Amino acid sequence: MYICVCKGVTDTAIREAVHQGADRMRDLKTCLGVSEQCGICACHAKEVLEQALMQRSLSQYHPT
Ligand code: FES
Questions:
Q1: Distance 8 CA to ligand 1 centre (A)
Q2: What are φ and ψ of residue 60, in 5° steps?
Q3: Fewest CB within 10 A of the end CB: N or C in the chain?
Q4: 31: Cβ below 6 Å to ligand 1?
């Protein structure tokens, strides 16, 4: 699903960026361009970021 229409960034791309080490909105902005233009996506992008961070920390305790 598209999160940032201006930059064509999907939730999958955000999760992948978190998997690669992104921790903050600033990181998503730098590596994907999220919320660089109109900024409407910022709130939803932050939700996806927080979910992905939680999944990342859980997988560190329960590696598959
Ligand atoms: S929708 Fe992300 S900057 Fe416009």
A1: 8
A2: -70, -30
A3: C
A4: no
